[in-house]
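[step 3/7] fold_predict: job queued, chain A
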Amino acid sequence: MRVIGVIDLRNGRAVRACAGRRDHYPSIGDPVDLARRYVDHYKLTELYLADLDAIESSHNGGGPERATPQVASDIGGPKRPALQGERHVARPFQGRDRDRGDTIRRIAQLGVPLWLDAGVSSVERARHALDLGATRVIVGLESLPSFHALRSICAAIGGELVAFSLDLRAGEPIAGRAIPLEAPEQLAARAADAGARSIIVLDLARVGTRVGVDFELLGRIRKAAPGLALLAGGGVRGLADLEKLAELGCDGALVATALDALYPSVTR
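[step 4/7] structure written:
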């Protein structure tokens, strides 16, 4: 079971994510120092970096606006969340974004694989993520304009370099108008068909809360995408959760808050 250390980056600082309320994430220090601590003290061999500024900018530059999903209807199935704005053409990081790019490069230079979620919604942005040093480019459902775009990204850079993030809030997909109204496991199957070779199931409502992961949902997704690497994100409490994830056929977990529980002999 792979443990991948999570770094959330906002306004140039590492922040502590909790329940997906990004405007309220407190700063916890320098992101490069945090990455170095993960590698040197926790001995983690993989890192995941979420560039929250880039993700949010993708809502106005190539991806759908984030919204809180509505509860599924008993008769009509899941309802699509209302979007706050229309899409425009995506562009790579520019201007002050170069500082974030420098931070990402410095983390990539620590010498461990870096999974980078930076609002990738096009081939151009995917290639830019690789240029920054990412070894795995994350394409999040939250930022994805369409599964055609995901297919194009996988064809351009290789599906083995692409991880599809199945972004959820309380089990409901966070997606835009061009994404089919389907259950999470069906969306996972679409991502597999588009060429992504890894899937991250990330429930923002569980992030940083240590309430546990949705094992039943992960089991369904494992069956829907049997040939892909499957990782869980959000809610991991400790070793028992990792053991159960392994039993379900998960390959790894994204962890930040629970690292001390997993490695109690390590102090920050």
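[step 5/7] annotate
The longest helix spans residues 97-108.
The first strand starts at residue 2 and ends at 10.
exit 0
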